[in-house]
Amino acid sequence: MTEPLLKVRGVQTFYGKIQALKGIDMDVNQGEIVTLIGSNGAGKSTLMMTICGTPRARAGSIHFDGKDITKTPVHKIAQLGISQSPEGRRIFPRMTVLENLQMGATVSDPKYYGEDLARAFKMFPILEKRQAQRGGTLSGGEQQMLAIARALMSRPRLLLLDEPSLGLAPLIVKQIFEAIKELNRTEGLTVFLVEQNAFHALKLAHRGYVMVNGRITMSGTGKELLSKPEVRAAYLEGGH
């Protein structure tokens, strides 16, 4: 069996003396969309940030494409082909849309820049119309599209998406999830998605994990998890 593209084993992460991750085991295979669902404060974003190197795992290991990246410097992790669209978007508000996208392209080969820009504009046509506008003046949905497009400008082998649907209108959420699905289908892009919107995430994902209080409590295909009564009760029927 081939090695997973991303392999997380026994990862423990702390904030000071508080343990946020309590021995996480998780795989993301090449070409998969894998989602991690769980309530607010379960540790989902901490896992994603630990993969990127801040904070560091205090125990356990993280391997990407067979290479141990547990202690690799943050900028080198990005150069290996891991790109993150962080929670809360974190675009550069004073820069234009185009300048934000150029920032995303800094770690990739310049010869692909035109092609990658065209792809970003095709995926989210509103960004082409707004390219001269400052990022901070965009709507929440447009900022989220910009954050994802900026992450894609680095030509990642693994795209990490942290709460892409947070605070957005259902129509915008649908558009963003469809764009992710299309990238995976046409380009084989590998995606690790952290999401509170369990229904959308599990419908989109090939496989999923459920996190409760810093531990993985369940895993399975998206379909399997959607059909589990405990998942439905906790995450799909009005409860979080």
From TrEMBL:
GO BP annotation list: L-amino acid transport
Keywords: Amino-acid transport, ATP-binding, Nucleotide-binding, Transport
Keyword Phosphoprotein: no
Domain ABC transporter residues, every copy: 6-238
Keyword ATP-binding: yes
Top-level taxon of origin: Bacteria
GO molecular function: ATP binding; ATP hydrolysis activity; branched-chain amino acid transmembrane transporter activity
Pfam family, one: ABC_tran
Family: Belongs to the ABC transporter superfamily.
Record's protein name: ABC transporter ATP-binding protein
